[in-house]
């Protein structure tokens, strides 16, 4: 006779703690005995649900519902007396945040990663869900170097008006409307997507520098931060690195509009605009040290670069190690202007 309800056991060893998600959930890298596989387990205390058992597996259900090549899949979900466990694949390459903390992305990489995680976000929206926590930490990079959306702990189903209310909102990703309303549309996620793009364009260090400016010896200056978010002063929309094309700047600024109605209407609109970006700026690799800033790209076996020291003196060259490099004299200047630099990056 088949039992209508069965309980089964899982067995795993915790290898290491790899982070926290939200205030209370913990994330571990584990070895699952039955699958003989390395996975990630997210552990959430049942006490967080205030006795509401119907919410125990809400995040796991959302993950399962949102199955898509650019959404992190759920392997299984289970419970013990005190915790809910959600098992996910282990992404050895880590998160998008890990990448943008270590180096600057090329424009081509920004577009590719963005179109990938935005495809996952579009799938989420098509299922009547709002993610509410889209950020580089929650975009994971697969072994095939593709970007997938993860962490659905704050995701909510929309009502008949297309609105939903998250349980909490984190400071760094807060859209302006979140400071004045209780329910939100998918424009909330589009703002956060714009914020991800901004961080990809300008680097995590720059974004953290802007955010940390609100932290003083007295603590976090919440009132000033709120004022700047609502006025559109945070993040600084007028700052972009010189190689960021004008088209991409406009896309980011539109996604970050203070008024939700002025943002992209759908994620597909945002993807289409990103896909239309082309030009010579796509492959510049930017880096900076304590003494100079440098842009470099390789094409047809030749390297083109320009470097600028702290005084503004520039040196531009093109060539390779075999045949040597020739100076591009019109851009070797004692004090190159921003306009001249942007023209070099656009024309070469």
From TrEMBL:
Record keywords, A-Z: ATP-binding, Kinase, Nucleotide-binding, Serine/threonine-protein kinase, Transferase
InterPro entries: Kinase-like_dom_sf, Prot_kinase_dom, Ser/Thr_kinase_AS
Limits of the Protein kinase domain: 12-275
Gene3D superfamilies membership: Phosphorylase Kinase, domain 1 (3.30.200.20), Transferase(Phosphotransferase) domain 1 (1.10.510.10)
Pfam families (alphabetical): Pkinase
GO terms, molecular function: ATP binding; protein serine/threonine kinase activity
Protein name, as recorded: Protein kinase domain-containing protein
Organism phylogeny: Bacteria, Pseudomonadati, Pseudomonadota, Gammaproteobacteria, Pseudomonadales
């Amino acid at each position: 006779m088949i039992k209508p309800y069965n309980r089964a056991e899982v067995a795993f060893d915790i290898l290491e703690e790899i982070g926290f998600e939200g205030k209370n959930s913990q994330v571990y890298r584990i070895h699952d005995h039955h699958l003989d596989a390395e996975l990630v387990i997210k552990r959430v205390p049942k006490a967080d649900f205030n006795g509401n058992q119907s919410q125990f597996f809400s995040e796991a259900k959302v993950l399962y519902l949102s199955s898509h090549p650019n959404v992190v899949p759920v392997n299984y979900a289970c419970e013990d007396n005190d915790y809910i466990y959600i098992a996910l694949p282990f992404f050895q390459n880590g998160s998008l945040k890990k990448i943008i903390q270590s180096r600057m992305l090329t424009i081509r990489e920004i577009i590719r990663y963005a179109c990938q995680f935005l495809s996952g976000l579009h799938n989420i929206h098509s299922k009547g869900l709002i993610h509410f926590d889209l950020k580089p930490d929650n975009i994971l990079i697969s072994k095939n170097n593709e970007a997938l959306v993860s962490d659905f702990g704050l995701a909510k189903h929309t009502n008949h008006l297309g609105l939903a209310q998250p349980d909490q909102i984190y400071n760094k990703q807060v859209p302006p409307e979140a400071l004045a309303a209780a329910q939100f549309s998918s424009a909330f996620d589009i703002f956060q997507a714009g914020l991800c793009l901004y961080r990809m364009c300008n680097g995590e260090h720059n974004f953290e520098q802007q955010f940390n400016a609100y932290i003083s010896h007295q603590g976090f200056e919440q009132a000033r931060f709120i004022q700047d978010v609502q006025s559109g002063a945070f993040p600084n929309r007028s700052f972009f690195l010189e190689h960021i094309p004008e088209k991409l700047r406009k896309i980011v600024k539109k996604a970050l509009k203070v008024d939700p109605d002025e943002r992209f209407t759908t994620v597909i609109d945002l993807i289409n605009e990103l896909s239309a970006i082309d030009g010579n700026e796509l492959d510049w690799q930017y880096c900076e040290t304590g003494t100079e800033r440098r842009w470099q790209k390789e094409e047809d076996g030749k390297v083109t670069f320009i470097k600028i020291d702290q005084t503004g003196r520039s040196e531009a060259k093109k060539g390779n190690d075999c045949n040597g490099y020739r100076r591009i004299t019109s851009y070797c200047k004692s004090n190159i202007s921003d306009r001249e630099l942007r023209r070099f990056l656009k024309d070469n």
